[in-house]
Amino acid sequence: MDMPQPDPAIIARKAQIVARLQAVLPADAVIHEPHEVRAYECDALTAYRCPPLAAVLPRTTAEVSAVLRVCFEEGVPVVPRGSGTSLAGGALPTADCVILGVARMNGVIETDYANRFIRVQSGRTNLSVTGAVESDGFFYAPDPSSQLACAIAGNIAMNSGGAHCLKYGVTTNNLLGVTLVQMDGTVLDIGGAHMDAPGLDLLGVICGSEGQLGVVTEATLRILPKPEGARPVLIAFDANEVAGACVSDIIKAGVLPVAIEFMDRPCIRACEAFAKAGYPDCEALLIVEVEGSPAEIDEQLALIKAIALRHNPVEFREAADEDQAKRIWLGRKSAFGAMGQINDYMCLDGTIPVTALPFVLRRIGELSKEYGLDVANVFHAGDGNMHPLILFDANKPGDLELCEAMGADILRLCVEVGGCLTGEHGVGIEKRDLMAVQFAADDMEAQLRVKDVFDPAWLLNPAKVFPLGVTAGRRAA
Amino acid sequence: MDMPQPDPAIIARKAQIVARLQAVLPADAVIHEPHEVRAYECDALTAYRCPPLAAVLPRTTAEVSAVLRVCFEEGVPVVPRGSGTSLAGGALPTADCVILGVARMNGVIETDYANRFIRVQSGRTNLSVTGAVESDGFFYAPDPSSQLACAIAGNIAMNSGGAHCLKYGVTTNNLLGVTLVQMDGTVLDIGGAHMDAPGLDLLGVICGSEGQLGVVTEATLRILPKPEGARPVLIAFDANEVAGACVSDIIKAGVLPVAIEFMDRPCIRACEAFAKAGYPDCEALLIVEVEGSPAEIDEQLALIKAIALRHNPVEFREAADEDQAKRIWLGRKSAFGAMGQINDYMCLDGTIPVTALPFVLRRIGELSKEYGLDVANVFHAGDGNMHPLILFDANKPGDLELCEAMGADILRLCVEVGGCLTGEHGVGIEKRDLMAVQFAADDMEAQLRVKDVFDPAWLLNPAKVFPLGVTAGRRAA
Predict the structure, then answer these.
(1) Where do the FAD-binding PCMH-type domain residues begin and end (chains A, B) (predicted)?
(2) Nearest residue on chain A to B161, judged by CA atoms?
(3) Number of Cβ within a 10 Å radius of residue A414
């Protein structure tokens, strides 16, 4: 490959931007050497890479405001970044952008148990929010699989969920307020540690906005008292459809488990080979967890067992103690690592009505045959948030494209049955062209106009969320 | 009083608008005779009245769209109206406006128990949503006091709560999607019967937007399985502060009652005189309700009792049966009617952190002495949503103004302790000038710009939510 010749005008422009950023930040907070910025060239959607012009790592809201003001004045696109764990390319740079990473903003600002909230800087990792309050018997509910690494900023950007969101809701249900810095550097204080808000409630539209409206620097989060206990059961079936019907019946019956996780045979096999959790050899497997006092747990599990038995499971395994409970979760929790060992894969994230599960699983099986690509299903079945993993060979020419085409077909299927394109991973670059499948032109236009208001020059997290064709006329020159 | 002379230009303009509305609606759906439009001159904030130019009662989304297009083209302000139960003047007309009432749009469009949602036209009353599903064991959770009359459209506009929102959340937590008609007649389909939404989530900002962004014609609502049972206890104290501290301790302990209602002595006395519920003669009274299976109820009530006893209550009364449970609720449920029997009152609606309850109650007592106006407190204490009722004499010159000044002081106090201006009644005209107490100029500006996007000519529900001074330059001429 020919090396591109450096363009003197681009070099001068970059030098000017870096100098202005260095003028408002400590020296160690501006990263601009080519070998250094490469660390920010991609997020967890590693098929796409592009080193940014520079990256900054501010420590305070005031520093974030200063950075954005500089970029606003210079017309430089800004890509906000939490921990870079996005599976949808939500933090993918463009070559002319500044990456604004919040990783150094990880402090706890205030903890208030009586009013049940914690206020943190947005770069704090999800798990360390719970870490800050668990010794006092509290926890922060949303628990994405990446919770050890992912930042609250990213959770808010993508409205992240997790295995336990069936009971506790996703980020938007646990977010009380944010400090948001707009592209021009203005600092907004939205929501707070109180119920409701007068006037227009901007918090809802900021949560899940994928860095399109501003940079969240601080967040007030609801914390909950830890339940007395929790217990999982494992239910094995000889057909996906039967497992799907069982999920649907559990939900219909009005029991509210904290989690209903689903794995199909390809996924069970891979996990078993990797984690040796002792899973049965079966077509489909559910892990259902309930929580509460021992009496509440017994009561709920009895009801779940009765429902499950009506579907003739191959096995119904209760966890008799903590160790058995851990083994039930072990395979599920290592699913993504296990799949990565045996194959390249693309992880989808569609949401469907729970009753459509059997139909959608059958159609995915048919699509798998049509495209000649295997699919492993592992997902949060209780709330219909599917994560089909399409297996492909990155070294085989055309396989990635085939995989992307099949992924798009599966997401179209989700929309057709009354669901939507994303549950918790966001649109990013991955699904931007599918937005037109979900939204009529007027519906999308309403969103674009809200984006116009917050970021008139379209400098924030460019080329994401919306189809490029739709936004071409709106973007900064 | 001199009768104003009819202005021929105004008469001609009215005739033109009415004719255009009649051209797009059935004859019985356009109300314009002066004696007829008077029915729409106020909502439940009856101190303010103004007959509208006309009122329309469409039956479908298409008719709503047609009405809005006519008004958009004519530059006529539109005031959307549910059942007219707003306590904040949210549906107060202006003389030049068309009232768009959704009362005839009260059908059920779809019920889906497996996926736990119901889709209704927005004019359906809150209670009749539950009515449509309760024989199948389900209910719709938000339960404002006016639930017999108030419409889902108004619940969405004000993000209404109710006694049981401590456990189930307010409207925004139970709303899955809406059909929204914009001022220019465009119909948007926002959210739906699935978790999460790709792109910008506009549902959050529409919920609670008080008719500023569009007219909601249909709503998809979450329905929940009815709990096995529920049981209230009544706890009486000899001081407000002690009752407040008890509430704070219950919340801190991590029990989650469905309701914690608070009444102080003036309210208890009025209710007792009116409803004869057999309430004890005390300074403050809590009604705490828990729900679940009999075992769960016993377990939760034992914990609540232990906490209450540490605060030396005058009485701790458990409901032994359904009849006693009804009597415990009887006084609370008749509170607003009871107060209305003995006095004119203004009902406030501030929200505060639960731990600030004792302090805020003491300060309200001090303000009551300073202003020489009695205050009765009855409110949803569990989530800090206060409803102080300021008693005044509507026939005494200056008393309403004094009452309004005191109300503003109490709401400022709520904001000072970290709370907010409204819990569930909205801003309306009542609190528009206090918005500047809650929001810095930049924060308010962000809201105004979102309003600009949805309603550029500022024709929707004019003169509400935002301070008139702030919005003067933005309104339609």
Answers:
(1) 48-226
(2) A196
(3) 28
Which of B195, B209, B451 lies nearest to residue A423, judging by beta carbons?
Answer: B195
Q: Quick one: closest CA in B to A184, which residue?
A: B442
The answer on A155 and A303 residing in a single domain is no
Domain end (from B180, B195, B226):
B226
Average pLDDT over residues B433-461: 93
> What phi and psi values does residue A14 have, to the nearest 5 degrees?
-60, -45
Rg of the Cα atoms in chain A = 23
pLDDT tens-digit profile of B77-98?
999 999 999 988 999 999 999 9
Residue A426 lies in a domain: no
CA distance A79 to A463: 10
B241 and B215 in a common domain: no
A438–B254 CB contact, under 8 Å: no
**Closest Cα in chain A, distance from residue B213 (Å):** 9
Q: Please, which contacts does B133-141 make with residues 24 or more away whose CB atoms are closer than 8 Å?
A: B133/B223, B134/B226, B137/A254, B137/B225, B137/B226, B138/B113, B138/B223, B138/B224, B138/B225, B138/B226, B139/B223, B139/B224, B139/B226, B140/B174, B140/B221, B140/B222, B140/B223, B140/B224, B141/B165, B141/B168, B141/B169, B141/B174, B141/B222, B141/B224
Tell me the chain A residues in contact with residue B193 when contact means C-beta distances shorter than 8 Å: 353, 418
Residues A446, B182: C-beta atoms closer than 8 Å: yes
Average pLDDT of the residues in A326-347: 84
Whether residue A423 lies inside any domain: the answer is: no
pLDDT at B1 > cutoff 80:
no
Residue A56 within any structural domain of the chain: yes
Whether residue B254 has pLDDT greater than 80: no
B185 and B326 both lie in a single domain = no
How many CB atoms neighbour CB B312 within 10 A?
Answer: 11
Provide the CA B415 distance to its chain's centre, in angstroms. Answer: 19
Check pLDDT > 60 for residue B476.
Answer: no
Condensed to tens digits (0 to 9), the pLDDT of residues A167-176 reads 888 999 999 9
Domain check: are A362 and A295 in the same one? yes
Can you give the residue range of the structural domain that contains A63? 8-101
User: Cβ of B112 and A161 within 8 Å?
Assistant: no
Confidence (pLDDT) at A56: 98
Residues B376 and B408 in one domain: yes
Distance between CA atoms of A197 and A177, rounded to whole angstroms? 10
pLDDT at A37 over 80: yes
Q: Which residue of A has its CA nearest to B228?
A: A254
Are residues B305 and B388 located together in one domain of the fold? Answer: yes
> Residue A65: which CATH number?
3.30.43.10
Could you tell me what percent of chain B has a pLDDT over 90?
A: 65
The domain that contains B174 carries what CATH number?
Answer: 3.30.465.10
Q: Is A441 on the interface with B (CB under 8 A)?
A: no
Q: How many domains does chain B have?
A: 2
